[in-house]
Amino acid sequence: MSIHDDLGIRPVINASATLTKLGGSIMPAEVIAAMQDAARYHIDIEELHTRVGTKLAELTGNEAAMVSTGAAAGIVLTIAACMTQGKRELAQLLPHAEKLPKNEVIMFTSHRNGYDFAVRQTGAKVIEIGTDKHTELAELEAAINERTAAFIWFQGNMSGIGDFPIEKVIELCSARNVPVIVDGAAQLPPVENLHRFTEMGAACAIFSGGKDLRGPQASGLVVGKRWLIDAMRPLGSPNQGIGRPMKVGKEEMAGLLAAVKRYITLDHEERRERDERVVAGWNATLNSIAGIHAHRSFPNEAGQPLPRCEFIIDPLVAGITRDEVIKQLWEGEPRIAVAEAGEHGIFLNAMTLSDEETNVVAERLKQILKRS
Ligand SMILES: *Cc1c(COP(=O)(O)O)cnc(C)c1O
After folding, report:
1. To the nearest whole percent, how much of the chain has pLDDT over 90?
2. N or C: which end of the chain has fewer CB within 10 A?
3. For residue 371, is pLDDT > 90?
């Protein structure tokens, strides 16, 4: 009997994305085994943090690394580390960042998003540059001053619109000694991103452990400069600091390490081809149904280089609306989650599905769309 039977909740076939609200992703056997193994022993947590960090740095091609409880927690710790720079007396003042000499964090107006709460949570003051459509290099130059603690770049569907290239940001910030933090929470694949941003000169890059890495849902990976990781560690558990409530367990550390080991040896090309096959199959199935127009959509919503199937429902011909299809998928058996596309469309994502589940999704859609 699974926990779901016990609680009376139905598991979800996730054809949407690695969303936190749907449980992120599913851990492979080796990750579960690593967590189980770690769960059996007491350990010196600081020693484990150090050793796991060293291994993760080696595996990802970085100077240093640290496991956090998620990418958002990674933002809190990296921003706090840039403000406190390893000084314990400053760390004790947080979240009253106004008492610290460096407390400003610059970001593009166009990058503002829900996750910048994690920046503000430290007490840091967000300094916006530009508009949601355009930013001049001079606006970044003018925003940097002696109170600047860091620049934060959000990589994802918010980047590439009102900003300018990350290379320029890093160049201008480096010239003024301002660390650039990259939130790349959902930027795997491609696997190269594990070292791409830091090779460009970013102080660190932050990734979710519970998205495509398929580590523990409550894990995150921060890779980057030694000084930054060293300044983060005293702020987090087991130490009393702003990161203490975001405690990383021994199980998360072991699980994320196993997940990264697996991820860097995966055949990503084979995996991409598999997703292409699945999407082509969905397109063929759906295009044979009256009132449905399906095509390949690329890249996906987070900018990951993987295809999705997007299909548009003509409600007059199909005899059913998009919202009704989504409702039936969610309420039927098995429960299936998909993403909305525009007003009449649905996205299907193969990333989070087993081969068997990709067929289940196709069969359920045929049932729903042909019945109507
Ligand atoms: C998912 C996501 C996060 C949060 O990641 P967690 O690991 O759930 O904390 C932060 N930033 C961006 C851009 C994300 O996509």
Report:
1. 98
2. N
3. no
CA distance 131 to 95: 28
Nearest to 300 by CA among 321, 276, 328: 276
Cβ within 8 Å of residue 247, ≥6 positions away: 69, 236, 237, 238
Task: For residue 197, give both structure tokens.
Answer: 């941003």
Cα angle for residues 218, 55, 272 (degrees, 5° grid): 65
256: which 2 tokens? 């994320």
- 176-201: b (≥16 Cβ within 10 Å) or e: eebbbbbbbbbbbbebebbebbbebb
Atom of ligand 1 nearest to the CA of 207: 7
Residue 140 reports pLDDT greater than 80 = yes
Residue nearest to atom 2 of ligand 1 (CA): 185
Share of the chain above pLDDT 70, in %: 100
Asked if 236 and 218 touch (Cβ cutoff 8 Å), the reply is no
Strand 12-14, strand 335-337: pairing: parallel
* Beta strands across the sheet bearing 148-154: 64-68, 220-224, 204-208, 180-183, 148-154, 104-108, 125-129
Dist CA 284 CA 102 (whole Å): 57
Residue 158, beta-bridge partner list? none
Ligand 1 mutation target, pool 77, 159, 208, most atoms within 8 A of CB: 208
Helix (H) or strand (E) holding 324, with range, is helix 322-331
* Residue 100 C-beta-side C-alpha neighbours within 13 Å: 30
Q: What is the largest CA-CA distance in the chain?
A: 68
CA 206 to centroid of ligand 1, rounded, Å? 9
